[in-house]
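Kindly inspect what follows.
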Amino acid sequence: MRIGRDLREARERAGLSQRELARRSAVAQPNIARIESGDQVPRVDTLDRLLRACDARLEVTSWAGRGVDRSQIRELLGMTPLERIERLVQEANALEAFPRGRLARSAAPA
């Protein structure tokens, strides 16, 4: 999660110490330290208040549709059902080559 790093960068760009940011935002300095280190996730209103004290703004963006490789979708749609099944079997066989423990660890959420 980037919240702590982004807050620290905003604070440093503003030339503020954690103590000064605490004074300006009315958020206790130990809480700011925990947020910056990633030990605490702030509420949205708290993060917004901290960023505003750094002369920065919280921006919300939509991730819908990002990261989709439409060329692969077009390729699959261009295949017959039999070609899709053959592709699926090839991919399943390739997955079988992975050791089960390694595959499970790599699929675990970060």
In short: Residues 103-110 have pLDDT under 50 and may be disordered. Helices lie at 3-13, 18-25, 29-37, 44-53, 70-77, 81-96, 100-107.
